[in-house]
Every structure is written in structure tokens, then in C-alpha cells.
Design goal:
With about 280 residues, the chain is of the alpha+beta class. It folds into two domains: about 80 residues, Arc Repressor Mutant, subunit A, CATH 1.10.10.10; about 170 residues, Beta-Lactamase (2-Layer Sandwich), CATH 3.30.450.40. The strands form two sheets. Strands 5-4-3-8-7-6 form a six-stranded antiparallel beta sheet. It has a two-stranded antiparallel sheet with strand order 1-2. A hairpin with a 5-residue loop joins strand 7 and strand 8. Helix 3 crosses helix 4, helix 6 packs antiparallel against helix 10 and helix 7 packs across helix 9. The longest helix is centred in the last third of the chain and has 22 residues. The protein is globular, with a radius of gyration of 19 Å.
Length: about 280
């Protein structure tokens, strides 16, 4: 899917800005490995000279940088500075992090906090437990389709069915590129299971076998604000230990939601996530 098929119609004089933002989204999504010029113009559907001109302009402004050896593009220093300046006075991460640390300390496992950005989930915090085998299955700051991972599934389970339909439709191709065995029927069964049980489960990887358990964190108005998940070796998630992990997550979510009720100013707490993102 290209930017042209998902972006709204440009207002007069804003086309270059929208194209640059579309490129930034792709670069941010692939920031760990970097993005090649050919990938960028193919994914956006723009002409190569246009993409190259926009990239060079963003490099000059330090929004992105280009590795001198690989020629791949990454987010630049100005993007980081702008992100710091844009942080809300009371960020979801700041509220949740003490509880993530508590869950990690009690379970010994790795805990992730995910917020929604359009059709994606973004990991905004991670807490590591004492278990010697760490589950670095998701990097802080990295985007991935919202329908991937236990925290994303937990978030989706709290959304209206028509919104779930939209996310599935937009994300199907990019999900199958990473996981050819993905089916919408399996996803919907997982969402229904999460609604019934109050938590989502997900098989993260086969070797070594890693599973995750996730729960949704709701804003005071009942809408999903974030998802929190625990990832560990599948052998550590037998029925008894699964119950313990779910209890820890339930306690943490309850405490976080109680704190969120103290911050009902929507300008200070990021309840409402953007509804449009480049697929």
C-alpha cells in the first residue's frame, strides 16, 4: 500500500509537506535497520527524483541522516529534539513506568508498554526483570502493526468492531510480509478470546519459544489508552504461572487507571491517539 492510497487529499500548497511526512513515517518505522532510497520511492509511489530531493532537504534540516557507508536513511537529531519538546506534561510513560518496574520485579520477565498511533502500536517503555534470558522482542520507539503482539491485541479488543475491520483491512498486506501464516480469522479469534478472558495471549516467536500476555489500559472515558504486556519463554507460562502474571497485570492496570482518573485534562494525558498513519 502506498502513501497515495491512504493519505487524505492534499490542501493547496501542502503536497510537499505531506510527502515529506509520509517519508518520515516510513523511516521511523524502519529506523533500526535504516531505509534505502529504492524502498522509500516504491512504498510512497513517488518519483525517485522527488523522493531524493525531499530526503536531501530533511537531511539538511537534521530531521533525518544518511549513513555514509550504507547510504540508508535514519531519523536525525532534530527529530529527537522535537519529540522531547512535544512530550506532554504528564506522559503515559511516566505514569506507567513504576508499575511496569513492579511487574518486572515480581515476575522476573520483560514488560512492555504500547500506545496506538493510527494503525500501528508503538512501544514507549520497557522494564526488564531478573530472569537471565531477556526477551528483547520489541524495541522502544519502534512501530509495528497494531494487530501484532499481545499488547496490540489487547488494545484492539477494546475497540469497536468497525474500527477493528478498518485496521485489519489496512494492515493485512504488511502483516503477511512478516508472517506468511497470518490469517484474519486467527486474529479475530484472538480478539474474541481477549474480550472474554480480559487479557490477550500471543506466540511471539518459535525459536526459542516465546509467549506474551497483554492487557488494555483504559482512559477515564473507557477508551483504550495503552496496552501492557509480559513476554517470556513459553516454558515459563504454564497455567499456574499464567494466573500469577495475569494477577500482576490486573493489579498494575487497576493502579494505572486510578492515576489516569486524576488527569482528565486531555491536553496533558495522551488518551486520543492519531487516527491516521501510513500503512
Amino acid at each position: 500500500m502506498t502513501a497515495a492510497s491512504t493519505a487524505p487529499k492534499a490542501a493547496p500548497g501542502t503536497q510537499s509537506l505531506q510527502r515529506a511526512v509520509a517519508l518520515l513515517r516510513i523511516i521511523a518505522f524502519n529506523n533500526r535497520s535504516g531505509s534505502r532510497l529504492v524502498e522509500l520511492y516504491r512504498r510512497t509511489g513517488l518519483e525517485r527524483p522527488t523522493v531524493h530531493r525531499l530526503l536531501q532537504g530533511m537531511v539538511a534540516e537534521r530531521l533525518i541522516r544518511q549513513d555514509a557507508t550504507t547510504k540508508r536513511y535514519y531519523l536525525g537529531g532534530l527529530a529527537y529534539e522535537l519529540g522531547l519538546a512535544a512530550s506532554p506534561k504528564v506522559a503515559m510513560r511516566d505514569i506507567c513506568l513504576p508499575y511496569l518496574d513492579a511487574v518486572a520485579a515480581h515476575t522476573g520477565d520483560t514488560v512492555f508498554l504500547t500506545v496506538r498511533s493510527g494503525f500501528d502500536g508503538i512501544c514507549v517503555a520497557r522494564a526488564d526483570g531478573s530472569f537471565p534470558i531477556k526477551m528483547f522482542v520489541h524495541d522502544v520507539g519502534r512501530h509495528r502493526p497494531l494487530n501484532v503482539g499481545a499488547s496490540g491485541l489487547a488494545l484492539m479488543s477494546a475497540l469497536p468492531d468497525d474500527e477493528i475491520d478498518r485496521i485489519c483491512r489496512i494492515n493485512v498486506e504488511r502483516t503477511r510480509r512478516k508472517n506468511p501464516r497470518y490469517t484474519e480469522a486467527t486474529l479475530r479469534a484472538s480478539i474474541e478470546s481477549a474480550r472474554r478472558r480480559g487479557y490477550a495471549t500471543n506466540k511471539v516467536m518459535d525459536e526459542p519459544p516465546v509467549h506474551s500476555v497483554g492487557m488494555v489500559i483504559r482512559a477515564p472515558d473507557g477508551t483504550p489508552a495503552a496496552g501492557v504486556s509480559v513476554s517470556t519463554l513459553a516454558s515459563r507460562l504454564g497455567s499456574d504461572r499464567l494466573e500469577m502474571v495475569v494477577r500482576c497485570l490486573t493489579d498494575a492496570v487497576g493502579s494505572i487507571e486510578a492515576e489516569l482518573r486524576n488527569y482528565v485534562d486531555h491536553d496533558r494525558v495522551p488518551y486520543a491517539m492519531p487516527t491516521l498513519a501510513l500503512a
